[in-house]
Design goal:
heterodimer; A: mainly alpha; 4 helices; elongated; B: about 300 residues; mainly alpha; three-stranded mixed beta sheet; globular
Chain lengths: ~140, ~300
């Protein structure tokens, strides 16, 4: 009786181990494949969107406040086109939380990207510092 | 005894096998633990840049950028002059003017620095602008927003929204999660501000940066004094409210500390003429009258 019980237990153990060892990696592998596929699809889609967006951006007339090419010489605009008033804040002077909760638009992202494109020309910076009798590092 | 051991072993193996197949509580506990660890670790330079890009786009969405390239360029020049004395070599600083009448300035991860049109309108010279921009540079140098998010207030948000390293190239798992986390973090920073110690640190280090660049040491202090005076006027409280006590320590505390810090400093440039030459702001009251007249 004891021998039969042992055999039964060993069989049960073997079956459990086999299922555990085989099923778990298979499950993870399927999951990883799915995730990789989804990510790959998203990346492709994002890449396509980005290319489309870049093309559209290049065609757009720039009105970001950085003057198109963003070089110092390219920013010759003196027209003041500010929107008057307390944009982005409520009557109490605190930030408009509803607006803050919204996702930025493609245009907002484009302007942020243009901002990173602003490079300080080293010659101009030297003149700026010298004229102001300031210091360089 | 031997039989009991075998039975126990069998049960453990069965449980482990079920766990391996179906996940369950052990998996969830381990997953949550790894998310906490992930949420509280330092951002990589790439993550900081991506989070900064998104945060900057959010600010631009709320306030808009002031559409005057010459003035944006001037602010960039002043900002770069003080930022070169900053402590971080891994960040390139970008400066711009936000199109709103409130008087404030903001620093976002990745080197994005904004000053508002309302703040510029209330400045008297370039050393005040340099002091304010240097204060913001010090926030980025010290990773203040990142530390706010990681250290205390937002780890829970990050964990709830899911930090899944390896499953997404976007910090905090997805753009939606990142947006939600940033909304909560920025709302908190705007309404309650950084810890007073962080603001004091930015005031002190910002003043040091402006001095190293050759500006008069009292620029930031003088601007805070102007805002403090304005805040006494009921009509101007809306303009200064975000700066005074809510998101920053009260003006008098800061002014007192900066007065002490700069008491021994002498010299330095104010560059009032250059500042006025570069300011091309239409006074909002005059423009409003013009608009009404046009109607």
């Amino acid at each position: 009786m004891e021998i039969i019980s042992r055999i039964w237990l060993i069989a049960l153990l073997s079956a459990a181990l086999a299922v555990g060892v085989v099923a778990a990696p298979q499950g993870n592998s399927d999951k990883n494949k799915k995730q990789q596929q989804t990510k790959s699809d998203k990346d492709k889609s994002a890449g396509q969107d980005k290319n489309d967006k870049n093309n559209k951006d290049q065609q757009k007339t720039d009105d970001s406040g950085f003057g198109g090419t963003i070089t110092a010489k390219g920013s010759k605009q003196t027209k003041d086109t500010a929107t008057l008033g307390f944009k982005g804040v409520g009557p109490d002077g605190q930030v408009d939380s509803a607006k803050l909760g919204e996702s930025p638009t493609g245009e907002d992202e484009r302007i942020a990207q243009l901002m990173t494109g602003v490079k300080t020309n080293s010659d101009e910076a030297k003149v700026f510092v010298d004229n102001g009798k300031l210091k360089s590092k | 005894m031997k039989r009991n051991l075998i039975t126990t072993f069998a049960l453990v193996v069965l449980a482990a096998s079920a766990q391996a197949q179906f996940g369950g509580w052990a998996g969830k506990v381990m997953n949550k633990g790894s998310k906490v660890a992930e949420a509280s670790r330092a951002w990589t330079p790439e993550e900081e840049q991506m989070i900064g890009d998104r945060a900057a786009a959010k600010l631009i969405h709320v306030f808009g950028v002031y559409n005057n390239p010459d003035m944006n360029k001037y602010v960039q020049m002043v900002g770069s002059t003080v930022a070169q004395f900053g402590t971080r070599n891994d960040v390139t600083y970008h400066f711009a003017i936000l199109d709103t009448d409130i008087a404030n300035a903001f620093a976002m991860p990745g080197g994005y620095i904004f000053v508002t049109r309302g703040a510029l309108r209330n400045m008297k010279n370039e050393s005040e602008l340099a002091g304010v921009l240097a204060h913001e540079v010090a926030h980025v140098d010290n990773r203040h927003l990142e530390r706010e998010i990681r250290e205390k207030k937002f780890t829970g948000i990050a964990v709830e929204t899911g930090v899944e390293q390896g499953t997404s190239s976007v910090p905090y798992g997805s753009w939606i999660n990142l947006d939600n986390m940033l909304t909560k973090a920025l709302t908190n920073v705007f309404s309650q501000g950084y810890a007073p110690a962080k603001e004091s640190e930015a005031d002190k280090e910002g003043t040091d940066l402006a001095m190293k660049a050759g500006y008069q040491a009292t620029g930031l202090r003088d601007f805070l004094q102007t805002l403090s005076d304005l805040s006494q006027n009921a009509d101007m409280q809306r303009s200064t409210n975000m700066f005074n006590g809510h998101s920053h320590p009260p003006f008098p505390d800061r002014i007192a500390k900066l007065t002490k810090q700069t008491s021994g400093a002498s010299g330095g440039e104010t560059l009032e003429a250059r500042f006025k030459q570069n300011m091309n702001l239409v006074p909002s009251d005059k423009a409003a009258k013009n608009t009404q007249a046009a109607k």
